[in-house]
Amino acid sequence: MKEKTLGILGGVGPLATIYFEDLIIKMTDAASDQEHIPMLVYNHAQIPDRTAYILDSSQPNPLPVMQRDARMLEQCGCDVIVIPCNTAHYFYEEIQKSVNVPILNILEETVSHCEQTIPDLKKIGVLATEGTIRSQAYQQIIEKHGLSCELPTEDELKTLMDIIYNQVKAGKEVDIYAFQHIIHEMKKRGADAVVLGCTELSVIKKDFNIDRYDVVDSLACLAGASIRFCGKTIKKD
């Protein structure tokens, strides 16, 4: 079987892209360097902010840049492309139309993972950027799977945006107590699983070693899907 090369359209944000690469390597069942997946990474941090455009279309549009980046990855020989950014999937269909290779969808992979791993799943809580929440990207996929969706309150969303933009993206100390409080409140409101629907939140899960089966890391779900698509096996542990 032909070895598949994974193209990573990254930089959205840069830290999450590096963590995604780390996940791919650590999650792959490989006994040597040669058994790992070939990856081509474009850590393009200059892509215009996705949430800014979704909330205000007069802001710079990231779509043409991401389409150009996807075509570049395809031309360089990538067999499949991933975008380690939930908010960027607002543009998923248009980016997919611009290339002839498949682009794995982090939202679909995350909801499917919840279905497979959370017992008696009925409601998924989503922690994400304002752009992802306002675009209803997760809500539509969750409802398509016959599940209900719990969203952050306006105050919780404001806190999440501060954590994402002014703490993680800015390289500042994270208010982990505020973050965990939002998860706690989501669970109190009936969420069977809480999805970290922003890859900066995935970085928090790693940095603070949040090891809960019901707090689902979208970046890890995408990493697992990438490994399987490229014909490799995920480590059992």
Tell me about this structure:
- The protein is of the alpha/beta class and 237 residues long.
- The protein has two domains: 6-105 and 221-229, Rossmann fold (3-Layer(aba) Sandwich), CATH 3.40.50; 106-217, Rossmann fold (3-Layer(aba) Sandwich).
- 48% of the residues lie in helices and 12% in strands.
- The chain has eleven helices and seven strands.
- It has helices at 14-27, 50-55, 63-75, 92-97, 106-117, 130-135, 137-144, 154-168, 176-188, 199-207, 218-229; strands spanning 6-10, 39-43, 80-82, 123-127, 148-150, 193-196, 215-217.
- The strands form two sheets. The chain has a four-stranded parallel β-sheet, sandwiched between helices.
- α10 (199-207) links the parallel β6 and β7.
- α1 (14-27) crosses α10, α1 packs across α11 and α5 packs across α11.
- The longest helix has 15 residues, at 154-168.
- The chain is globular.
- The relative contact order is 0.18.
Quickly give the structural class: alpha/beta
Distance between the termini: 26 Å
The residue ranges in which pLDDT falls below 50 over 5 or more consecutive positions are: none
What strand order characterises the main sheet? 5-4-6-7
Radius of gyration: 17 Å
- CATH-defined fold name of the largest domain: Rossmann fold
CATH architecture of the largest domain: 3-Layer(aba) Sandwich
CATH class of the largest domain: Alpha Beta
Order of helices and strands: EHEHHEHHEHHEHHEHEH
Number of helices: 11
Strand content: 5-15%
Total strand segments = 7
Q: In terms of quaternary structure, what is this?
A: single chain
Mean pLDDT: 96
Approximate helicity band = 40-55%
Q: Biggest β-sheet, characterized?
A: 4 strands, parallel
- Global morphology: globular
Domain count: 2
